[in-house]
């Protein structure tokens, strides 16, 4: 359950390459409801604020995930992911990862040196520091979400085409690949929303049935916000639906369901 919940939160906070910061702004906030069938498993939130790094204003994104109700009784999750990244280039300066998943904990910060393509990871739990070499345009897990929302060709992708981003996570660089599946009108609690459908390519095996077991619905408007995420697991499936939002930079394109 820990792996399922974490992976779902990862893809909530990580859903779509060049700088074009016009899909979001400070003050944006989302809340998602995560459910396993009819069971309400937990919630995840994601917000963006302003901060100062290297004497200039940057974005500070904060993602949190937690279990509720009986799910919390059986498996407690309290996760916090943060990222500080440049308003123009979208390159990350720092990330924070504090997690508690059924007693499994991490407390880390990463500091990027973009000039030298290095990241210094401070592990406060184990009291260690280690430097890693990274690629030039590497992102952390949270900044990836904002980086890809402004992909210049996101609206021009053809069915079957993909976007790929280098993402630093768990002391490694991952090639995060997202394949465009198509478009549809998605029924949400807010009404019918035009949506773009993507499938992140994941490793098949014990957790996921197949490489394309994750499906992500993104609003087909200027916001490019996640509306729904579905994970087909070895047993059953998890879903996350947009529960609430505020501070969108552009109008949310939705029509009321008759």
What can you tell me about this protein's structure?
- The chain has 258 residues and is mainly beta.
- Helix content is 10%, strand content 52%.
- It has helices at residues 2-13, 69-74, 143-149, and strands spanning 29-36, 39-53, 56-67, 77-86, 92-101, 104-113, 118-123, 128-133, 162-169, 172-188, 191-200, 214-219, 226-232, 237-246.
- The protein has a 14-stranded antiparallel sheet with strand order 8-7-6-5-4-3-2-1-14-13-12-11-10-9.
- A hairpin with a 4-residue loop joins strand 13 (226-232) and strand 14.
Overall radius of gyration = 18 Å
From the N-terminal CA to the C-terminal CA, the straight-line distance is: 38 Å
Main sheet record = 14 strands, antiparallel
| Residues in helix, % | under 10%
The largest sheet has its strands arranged as 8-7-6-5-4-3-2-1-14-13-12-11-10-9
Low-confidence stretches: 13-21, 203-210
How does the overall form come out from the CA principal axes?
Answer: globular
Enumerate how many helices there are, as a single number: 3
What order do the helices and strands follow?
Answer: HEEEHEEEEEHEEEEEE
Beta-strand residue percentage:
over 45%
Report the count of strand segments.
Answer: 14
Q: How confident is the prediction overall: mean pLDDT?
A: 85
What structural category arises from helix and sheet content? mainly beta
List keywords for this structure.
single chain, 258 residues, mainly beta, 14-stranded antiparallel β-sheet, 3 helices, 14 strands, 10% helix, 52% strand, globular
Gist?
Helices cover 10% and strands 52% of the residues.
């Amino acid at each position: 359950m820990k792996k399922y919940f974490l992976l779902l939160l990862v893809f909530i906070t990580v859903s779509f390459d060049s700088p074009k910061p016009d899909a979001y702004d400070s003050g944006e906030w989302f809340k998602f409801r995560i459910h396993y069938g009819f069971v309400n498993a937990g919630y995840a939130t994601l917000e963006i604020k302003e901060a100062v790094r290297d004497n200039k204003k940057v974005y500070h994104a904060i993602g949190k995930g937690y279990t509720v109700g009986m799910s919390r009784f059986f498996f407690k999750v309290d996760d916090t992911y943060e990222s500080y990244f440049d308003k123009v280039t979208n390159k990350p300066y720092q990330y924070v990862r504090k997690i508690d998943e059924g007693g499994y904990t991490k407390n880390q910060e990463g500091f990027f040196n973009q000039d030298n393509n290095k990241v210094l990871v401070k592990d406060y739990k184990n009291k260690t520091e280690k430097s890693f070499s990274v690629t030039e345009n590497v992102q952390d897990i949270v900044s990836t979400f904002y980086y890809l929302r402004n992909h210049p060709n996101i609206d021009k992708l053809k069915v079957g085409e993909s976007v790929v981003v280098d993402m630093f996570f768990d002391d490694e660089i991952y090639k995060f690949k997202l394949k465009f599946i198509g478009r549809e009108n998605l029924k949400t609690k807010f009404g019918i929303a035009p949506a773009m459908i993507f499938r992140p390519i994941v490793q098949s095996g014990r957790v996921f049935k197949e490489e394309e077991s994750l499906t992500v619905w993104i609003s087909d408007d200027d916001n490019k916000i996640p509306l729904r995420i579905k994970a087909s697991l070895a047993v059953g499936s998890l879903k996350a639906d947009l529960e609430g939002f505020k501070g969108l930079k552009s109008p949310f394109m939705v029509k009321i369901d008759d």
